[in-house]
Amino acid sequence: MKESLWPAEGAAVLVDALARRAGMPARADVVAAARDAEAACAELGLEAERVYVSAANFEDALRSAPPAVVALPVGILALVGAGRGWVRALGPDLRVRRVSLDALWAAMSAKAEAPHAAEIDGLLEECRIGGARREAARRILMRERLGDVVIGRVIQVRVAPGASFVGQAREAGLVRQLIGYALAHGLEYLAWLLAWWLLGVGALSGRTDQGWLTGWTLLLMTMVPLRMWMLWLQGRLALGLGGLLKQRLLAGALKLDQDQIRHQGAGQLLGRVIESETVESLALGGGLNALAAAVELMMAAAVLAVGAGGIPQAALLVVWIGLTVWMGMVFAKRRKEWTEARLKLTDDLVERMTGHRTRLAQQPPAEWHREEDRAVDEYLHRAAAMDKADARLLALASRGWLAAGLAGLAPGLMNGGSEAAASLAVGLGGVLVAQRALKKLASSMAQLAGAGIAWEAVKPLFDAAAKEDQPAVVTASGTSAAVIDAHDLTFRYHERGEPVLRGASVRIERGDRVLLEGESGGGKSTLASVLVGLREAGSGMLLAGGLDRKSLGSSGWRKRIVAAPQYHENHILSGPFAFNLLMGRAWPPTEEDLKEAWQVCQELGLGPLLERMPGGLQQMVGDTGWQLSQGERSRVFMARALLQKAELVVLDESFAALDPENLKQALECVLRRAPALVVVAHP
Predict the structure, then answer these.
(1) Mean pLDDT across the chain
(2) In terms of C-beta density within 10 A (0-12 exposed, 13-18 middle, 19 or more buried), how is residue 262 classed?
(3) Are 641 and 678 in contact (CB under 8 A)?
(4) What CATH number does domain 165-359+368-464 carry, 1.20.1560.10, 3.40.1000.20, 3.40.50.1820, 3.30.310.50?
(5) Contact indicator for 316, 404 with CB cutoff of 8 Å
(6) Contact between residue 617 and residue 597 where contact means Cβ atoms under 8 Å apart
(7) Any idea what DSSP says for residue 565?
(8) In the chain, pLDDT over 90 holds for what percent of residues?
(9) pTM over 0.90
């Protein structure tokens, strides 16, 4: 294992080599200079996920980890593969070597084993177990004793969700699976065609002997494993592509501009969530069906060309495919019009239910629903037009072709002889195969039309994921004593609007406590969001520790300055209470993280709440779990900001919902823990 170990200070070079080995699209213009793997991944535009390894999940965690980085007391390993009882590691000389899991266990568990080694060795001595059996028994007993004790951690290296979607699919092996799916479907249909040819020729020529039936049976049996292979690949593709899409949309949702989210109604946001499910279900099903239909149509055209109809009938199929595509485009247009009418109804309904849209007080009751009635009539009109286009597409595509295709076989039917019978059988099989393929094509076009329309709603989320965080230019800390130094900041919400901030300047050093007070609409929250980096000033200079945001990068700026925004811009997510507290740190948390979170909750006055929760820090909270009051939520937001251990903490209206006793306790905690503090409040 020594040949595969990298020095601890070589994490940046290791991650770069690991990414190149795995074919990951890392930033080519950045040379990572970080001293740990997670920071190096951030600099290279990759995603790092921390996985804690315990004695119970040791083998499973390491086998599913590659490509990954394993931190050991004597160095670090770059895992590129795994097997039964071993892993493959990339060494500093870029050679790949096998490392046994036993050797890796010994290196990772040495510290955790120390308190139990004497007891287990004594037990083995009393049982007089020696030789190779002694070592195996010792390893089993030690793993049982350690159980869920964490013995190390693995950093899984992945492509960032905002990277090329095709590249992510290729890295996940989905492109190979897609090719395999097309191949399996083609072989299955080839076997089906041969079986039809044998049966048709035998029936039309009167040669239905035992040999022909045996060949027909064998071909049908061959189709069974091919169909199973195809269905297995289809399931893998659906899970893989669906997972990548959800990951991409989630990453995009986290990168959306806050003003863009704020200015959209609840109805539009709800509709976008619903449409994201539509994209996944319809696009995957329709795409695979379209691929299968394309394979079948190519085979059908080849069969028709050698059948009784010849080249003219194959050309007729091409024309019919074009007609089907045109009808599919007409249906897509009608469905888009219907979707717009449906979403308008949904948006209006949700806006009225949430109280974001009200009726005019002077409007007569008889006219209250006139607008809704007009929208419903429009919706019904669009629905009827869409249904007609759908019926035309599904009926004419397959059934119309069946009539036209059989008509094309009429000349061959008039001829006699065994050769004509065989040619007629082939042509008839081609017509039926084409009918089935056209039916599948029409169905897939209807699905893809729905997916394409739904895509317009989720495309902003998909595109937002590609928005790259600004990488750090320097890694050293600044020399300025000021945590924040701002000069002449100007900010406008609209290009030609009046500036909300004009000539704003502030200097905050470590230990400062700043109260930002003013009337509503005076720009307090805007200034706070500019300092935190949620908004970018139109002009002026903003430095953190003597460095601007371009030098520190987006991630570096967020590590220095954190905020607890106002309650309507902050959220409790459905999940464990600990996750809502520690979501600004690495997840899953260590035991020290949980202890610190518990201590901060006690200092903020959330101790009684934790005592009432049956699960403590692991209690599920949020919309589907434990409900928190407004005051409890505000203190969770404060704890979330404090636990990020930034140099500056900005609290925007965080104390407004607290009673005097809890306000005093929370304020004492914040003043004690925040290195520098800005509190935004009303006078």
Answers:
(1) 79
(2) exposed
(3) no
(4) 1.20.1560.10
(5) yes
(6) yes
(7) -
(8) 5
(9) no
Dig out the tokens for 313 from the structure. Answer: 């009938």
pLDDT of residue 5: 85
SS (H, E, C) 45-66: CEEEEEEEEECCCHHHHHHCCC
pLDDT tens figures, 252-287: 777 777 666 666 655 566 566 666 777 777 777 777
Is residue 169 within 8 Å of residue 245, measured between CB atoms? no
The identity of residue 467, as a single letter, is K
Domain ranges of the chain: 2-159, 165-359+368-464, 482-681
Strand, helix or coil at 309? coil
What would the two tokens of residue 220 be?
A: 């049908």
**Which helix (H) or strand (E) element contains residue 12?**
helix 11-22
Residue type at position 350: V
Lowest mean pLDDT, pick from 239-253, 275-289, 453-467: 275-289
CATH for 482-681, options being 3.30.420.40, 3.30.240.20, 3.40.50.300, 3.40.50.620: 3.40.50.300
**Counting runs of H as helices and runs of E as strands, what totals does the chain give?**
22, 15
Chain mean position to CA 607: 35
Q: Tell me the C-alpha distance between 473 and 30, whole Å.
A: 9
H or E stretch including 447? helix 418-464
Nearest C-alpha neighbor of 306 from the set 401, 144, 193: 193
User: Which stretches of 465-606 are DSSP H helices?
Assistant: 524-532, 549-560, 577-582, 591-603
For 519-606, where are the alpha helices, taking DSSP H only? Answer: 524-532, 549-560, 577-582, 591-603
Q: Are 652 and 638 a contacting pair, CB within 8 Å? A: no
How far is the C-alpha of 52 from the C-alpha of 251, rounded, in Å? 23
Question: Residue 642: helix, strand or coil by DSSP?
Answer: helix
For range 607-613, the mean pLDDT: 89
For the structural domain made of 2-159, what CATH number should be given?
3.90.70
Burial class (CB in 10 A: 0-12, 13-18, 19+), 373: exposed
Three-state secondary-structure class, residue 72: strand
Give the CA radius of gyration of the chain: 33
CA distances from 659 to 634, 635, 664 (A): 12, 12, 9
Write b or e for each residue in 40-61: b if 16 or more Cβ atoms lie within 10 A of its Cβ, otherwise e.
Answer: bbbbbbbbbbebbbbbeebbeb
Tokens representing residue 217 in the block: 């049976």
Q: Which of 344, 324, 309 is nearest to 448 (CA)?
A: 324
Give the residue from 220, 198, 219 showing the smallest Cα distance to 209.
198
High-pLDDT (> 70) share of the chain, %: 85
Distances (CA, A) of 424 to 224, 318, 433: 27, 20, 14
Please say whether the dihedral angle defined by the alpha carbons of residues 104, 107, 109 and 110, taken in this order, is positive or negative: positive
- Pair 181, 230: CB distance under 8 Å: yes
- Which pair of structure tokens corresponds to residue 494? 């609209």
Instruction: Report the C-alpha gap between 552 and 531 in whole angstroms.
Output: 14
pLDDT per position as a tens digit, 26-85: 555 555 556 677 777 777 778 888 888 887 888 888 888 888 888 888 888 888 888 888
Closest CA to 18 of 75, 73, 80: 80
**CA gap 427, 443 in Å, rounded:** 24
Contact 237, 178 (CB under 8 A): yes
Quick one: average pLDDT of 675-682? Answer: 87
